[in-house]
Amino acid sequence: MLHDSQRRHEGRDRDHGQRAALFVRQLQGEGILDLVQADLELLVTACEGHSEGTREAPLIVQVCWDADRLDLGRVGIRPEPRRLCTAPARDPRYLTFAWQWSVMRGTNRRESSLWGSE
After folding, report:
1. pLDDT tier at 106, thresholds 50, 70, 90
2. How far is CA 91 from the centre of its chain?
3. Residue 42 has what pLDDT?
4. Quick one: pLDDT at residue 49?
5. Number of domains in the chain
């Protein structure tokens, strides 16, 4: 929910991850989030690096990055296995499923936007 919250548009927005990380820290400072320091740092790391192509991180962060990358079909980008962090995410069967799911979600989102329901 937070990693793309500071996107200015669906196109290339290089700094949205950094802005999201700052937003996470702001939410923590305002008491909206109540994370222990270790969890806060993991969330900040996940936000900062999710669109940079990074693959080295604690497993929970890798899973977050994979989830984001597996959803790129929503904007017409097919995920590249070499950019995914975990073996399950690189599984060809799961890649096919994720591609179909994200393309369908992206199509539904665009259609509902066209009809003014989003």
Report:
1. low
2. 19
3. 95
4. 82
5. 2
What does the DSSP 8-state code read for residue 31? T
Q: Which of the 8 DSSP states describes residue 116?
A: T
Helices 16-29 and 37-49 meet at what angle, rounded to 10?
160
Contacts of residue 72, defined as CB under 8 A and 6 or more positions apart, other chains included, come to 78, 79, 102
pLDDT category at 115 given cuts 50, 70, 90 is: very low
Q: Is 50 exposed, middle or buried (0-12, 13-18, 19+ CB in 10 A)?
A: buried
Domain hosting residue 69, numbered range: 55-118
Judge if 59 and 117 occupy the same domain: yes
- 90 vs 49: which has the higher pLDDT: 90
